[in-house]
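Troubleshooting: if your tokenizer reports a length mismatch, compare against these two reference records.
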Amino acid sequence: MHLQPGSCQSHVDKIRKDYTVDLKSKVTADRQRATALYFIDRLALRAGNEKGEDEADTVGCCSLRYEHVTLEPPNKVIFDFLGKDSMRFHQEVEVDQQVFKNIKIFKAEPKGKGDDLFDRLTVRALSMKSVRDMANGRLCL
């Protein structure tokens, strides 16, 4: 790959365009990935990682659970969880209507407390799709 300083904006724009389209995908896994990318992009949430039994119950975007996200119509999402280094993340944000709709779908019964919000998404799947997208262009700095 060739490094092209200053060329990042076009890649970022393409990734944003792609995930915006995928917010309405018929494939749930794609819709979940797009919604997670929206949160990572707009809220600077970290992707997160799976943890072992002996690690603190900290959360990233891909490990959000049902109870970490509350919806307040018409389009407010309230996040409340322990993030990296066990720092509380509490934020109320207005989101695009499609993102609100997606979260409502992802929280639908039979899901409840303890269930993953993004049950068809892993950090690896999120990362690999983004890497493939970037590989189609040039790596930017």
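Reference record two:
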Amino acid sequence: MDPQASRKIAANGVAGQEGGEPPEVVLRNIRAVCELEQKALDERSVGERIGDGVSHYAGRAWFIVFHVLWFGMWIILNAGLVPAVPEFDPYPYPFLTFAVSLEAIFLSLFILMSQNRAARQADQRAHLDLQINLLAELESTKMLEMLTALCQHHGLNAGLSPDIEQLAQPTKPKTLVSELQHRLPESN
């Protein structure tokens, strides 16, 4: 395959497709993922929707700019730099401190609520990924068994590799988890 064709496939994500619509099987998967995402969004409680909205807007650059302007104006007005405006919260600005503290409390609660919902959704996706991976592994094992049987039936030695024999054995997730826990370095 020439390098330009490889770049087109990499850009499109699908072999055999140069521009245009992806194949139906890909579109079907995209629709399924979009439906799951929409269902998760629709099932949020009112509080979760508010928390997501606050988190969404609080993470924007304009939110920081707004606060810089707000704090700057508050300090300028209460430092006596604008003679026409009487000081309503003189230094050390106790009312500003109170307002900012309340805002920080509520903002952190909304963000935590949004993060908890996102973590639950991520856990659900991880469980789904695990199930799909286990099914794909089972399918691959069965295909290896069938290919080995075909090779043996036709008298081919290609299916007699020790690696293939090991890969054709069913994967035992509990054994893998135990082995990983035993071998992975511990974090401090």
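Descriptive notes for reference record two:
- The helical segments are 3-12, 24-42, 46-58, 61-78, 94-153, 162-167, 173-183.
- The two ends are 48 Å apart (CA to CA).
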